[in-house]
């Protein structure tokens, strides 16, 4: 149940991080060089940048984690 991140040539858009783990966020930061400020533990519950929004290295992203996975199937 891991996320797969794929970086292509082109503009970056903010993914929907709902349900992501801290490891997923670290992988996103490493791949994109965009810093994500994390609050809490568990799984992403909310994010400051709406998904599908254009982002770049200057974008400030904040996510809040909660111990309950709100994106489970």
Automatic annotation (TrEMBL):
Top-rank taxon: Bacteria
Domain PASTA: 8-67
CDD domains in the record: PASTA_Pbp2x-like_2
UniProt-recorded name of the protein: Penicillin-binding protein
